[in-house]
């Protein structure tokens, strides 16, 4: 009897969004976790928008997932939009969010923006690590 990744993600979602059981059922949440692992950006974007429509504010983890998915799919402009939205809502990126953004920009050859994001990371006292 093991614990699956969707079960761990479900546990995180339920602890992060205590009212989520009033909005989504267990199957919806597991589907969302599978999308994040399967790289289905369009479906994940729909879930992201649905979450916001239902008044659940995305946190740095949610934005990081969207940034990673878009970056891995070659959607650099979408990656930038999610990062800018994250900043504009007052959601402070953590080390993982910055690193994910920098990796997405590098993967998509956007070195000028990568240097800008890296400088903002350092300016905001977020120390890069070996993955950044």
TrEMBL record:
PPR repeat intervals: 59-93, 94-128
Coiled coil: none
Superkingdom: Eukaryota
Keywords for this protein: Repeat
Gene3D superfamilies for this protein: Tetratricopeptide repeat domain
PROP1-like PPR domain span: 41-130
Matching NCBIfam families: PPR
Stated family: Belongs to the PPR family. P subfamily.
Protein name listed in UniProt: PROP1-like PPR domain-containing protein
Record organism: Stephania japonica
Lineage: Eukaryota, Viridiplantae, Streptophyta, Embryophyta, Tracheophyta
